[in-house]
Amino acid sequence: MNKQQKEVVIVSAARTPIGKHGGYYNYLSAEDLAVLAVYEAIVRSGMDLAKTRIDNVVAGMIYIDSMNQQIYLPRNVAIRVAEMFNDRDNLRVAPGKTTLRICGTGFQVLADSFDQLMSETENAGCVLSFATENMSQTNLIHQGRRKKDSVWDFEDAPLRDYLMEGFNHNLFKTLMPKTAELYGSQTGVTRKACDEFAYLSHTRAMNAQIKQWNRFANAGPGNYLQGIFTVDAVDQAGNAISLWRDEGTKYDISKDELANLRPMLKPDGLVTPGNASQISDGAAAAVLMERSFADKHHIPYLATLKGYQFSTVPPEIMGQGPVPAVQDLLAKLNMKKENVDLFEVNEAFAAQYLGVEKELGLPRERTNVNGGAIAMGHNIAATGLRITIDLIYELKRQGLKTGIASACIGGGQGGAVCVEIV
């Protein structure tokens, strides 16, 4: 079979509800969250691990030096999930790797899987992809070097906030909110528009969650946000709970409350804590197969992964990244914007999203229809996969066909993937 005849399909996909900083996932590691998402994705696939091989595991995580030995992430997750299925001959022995592209990591795990399945040399039929992040568990880092005369002793050095270090781009003397300020200003975005969009994000997320609840309560039509599965956790009082919705969404937020928040960087700035994405925890996973492999094993699939694209912009306006990424992907796939039924664009900052919306001419009624990271949270490594999963299920809910998910990426990049419902 030649490369042109191959297609990559997404057999199954699942994501945890997104937890807010210090919330319900405070004591679950990124690895723990990944195990939950991977287990659910495999269950949803309906595949028999005793009969259907998994050729590779692709993991994504940014804050890999956080707690709990996460340099072993792909193998640990694979082995732990294999034990849950009592499988010692398939998933347990699947090789794994960790990939990283900052805020585009969730897209990168899809891209790596796509490339393996399309390759003539890899001979892969099935790849398991997941991305995870627990930002609540990022550490203080001691940056002292080891002393020359002892491998066990270190030079004196300050402690650095591992999470906040990632928000700075020292080479260009900028930080992520500042890039959103600059890009938003260049595209004519106003503070009022940012706050109004943040309110819309929370409203859309709240409305989708109310309808999502019907699915769990058997109270009527409830096919919203079907990528989410429930997670058993413990609240801050030690009570057992079942988490079924994204924790950060505010049901009582008002436009006045958003308008009264102080800007983060300067008195007349665009970015506030209310119109920026939230620091969050969560994981997402997908099972991908080469289409003929899935057909051979009689495994149904959700969608076709048509392609992906990573493009660059000046690091000082990294929020512009989705603009060339989407444009380049459309050109690569010989598509027009009008061919796309729904868009998902990560809401790193309202100022950044609004600039992208304006430059691409995105129809707001068909973009982020169930809210975005301002309301749900931005569990950084998992976000690209999370919004792709939400996009797939929303396309299915509405009976639509084609969607593009995109995000800006720190350092001056943008990523995008295109999916098509089968």
Please tell me about this protein's structure.
This protein has helices at residues 30-45, 73-84, 105-118, 162-165, 176-186, 191-217, 255-259, 291-296, 322-332, 350-360, 373-376, 383-398, and strands spanning 8-15, 19-20, 56-60, 96-99, 126-134, 140-142, 159-161, 168-169, 174-175, 231-234, 240-243, 280-290, 303-312, 342-345, 402-409, 413-421. By secondary structure, the chain is an alpha+beta fold. The strands form 4 sheets. Strands 1, 2, 3, 4, 5, 12, 13, 14, 15 and 16 form a 10-stranded mixed β-sheet that branches. A hairpin with a 3-residue loop joins strand 15 and strand 16 (413-421). Helix 1 (30-45) packs across helix 2, helix 3 (105-118) packs across helix 12 (383-398) and helix 5 packs parallel to helix 10. The mean pLDDT is 93.
Attribute tags:
12 helices; 16 strands; Peroxisomal Thiolase, Chain A, domain 1; two-stranded antiparallel sheet; alpha+beta; ten-stranded mixed sheet; 32% helix; 422 residues; globular
Compact overview of the structure:
The protein is of the alpha+beta class. The chain has 12 helices and 16 strands.
